[in-house]
Design goal:
13 helices; SAM-dependent_MTases_sf; Rossmann fold; about 375 residues; binds S-adenosylmethionine; about 50% helix; 7 strands; alpha/beta; single chain; seven-stranded mixed beta sheet; methyltransferase activity
Amino acid sequence: MCLAIKIWASDETQHNQQNLILSMFDIFPKLSYQALQSGKNYFAFTHKTVSSQIKNLIYPSLQPNISPLSPKLLTQLQDSMNQLLARDWEDSQAGVYPQNLLFDDSWEDFFRYYPLICLDLPNIWERIKNRRYQEFSQEIATDNYPSYYLQNFHYQTDGYLSELSANLYDLQVEILFGGSTDAMRRRILCPLKSQLTAFDHIPQEQLRVIDVACGTGRTLKLIRSALPDVSLFGIDLSSAYLRKANELLCQIPGELPQLVQGNVEELPYRDNYFHGTTCVFLFHELPAAVRQTVIEECFRVTKPGGVFIICDSIQENDLPEMELVIKNFPETFHEPYYKHYITDNLVERLEKAGFEQIETQVHFVSKYWIAHKPSY
Ligand SMILES: C[S@@+](CC[C@H](N)C(=O)[O-])C[C@H]1O[C@@H](n2cnc3c(N)ncnc32)[C@H](O)[C@@H]1O
């Protein structure tokens, strides 16, 4: 079509048309991104509405003790998601990460596992009805895990300990966050990249970044796109989630991130090893004392001059208008440590461990702590 316009147009019209085509290319990906995100958001909303209506029909006694969100609050939530997406788009245009990362959805997983999410709903409802929040399939060995970990977080079947759970997790979180999970994870990339410039004198291949509690590897994949040459590491307690992460990460070019099964309370790395340490969506699932231990471990393994970035849920008092959303969350999902988490002062905890110059940011329903290890 482009060629046809060139043949038939005069020089001036050709020039104008070329500009038009160029600016259409400029506009089109943005519109495509917005359309994709709206589609995911509507889909998630429809799934949540229909599934909760079916649940209310079958289990009328299971209605959670939550206050409904007012239309004003829903609009505020939508606005704040749109702001997140706008920042996401801007960072991709500024070259913090490639634009194609915004379209990196696993449609194969969606078509394979969405039906399983629906089929699993009755199991979840039974679990809620019978208040069985530490329920695992018989074949799953539950010894050797800390007791706080042996939970059906979000009522998930098998907690974090089965292949089924690993296959459904990303989609479940996408539904929860209306398709904006990766956009929230990507908010760590700009501070991570800019803080790593402190090590500009070192070749990129010699920089080491670890994502602790890496889960299914989504954050590592995003970091790989923004920092193609750095050496990446991931650690998680769940071997099923690590297998899923390996499946995802071995498809992308570049050195394969080194994945280790282990407890982030005792990181199996030497002191001062990593130039950057990240942790996404872990802290709200930890008891208070463990949060401190994990922060201290992350301090130990981060190099002097390095950066530690946490991304997790917003907390009480971050955004007064979101108070109800925060209050409803642990009523709707099994999140035993969330109520304490939302009041926990992580800045104090980070300072206690030795971090300094701690910056916090809030985007949509996530909060970020960007902490520096002093360079002595
Ligand atoms: C909510 S998921 C977040 C996963 C991933 N970071 C993400 O962005 O989706 C929490 C993850 O933390 C892991 N986890 C929880 N406690 C842990 C611990 N003490 N040591 C290692 N991993 C842990 C779980 O296995 C799970 O993969």
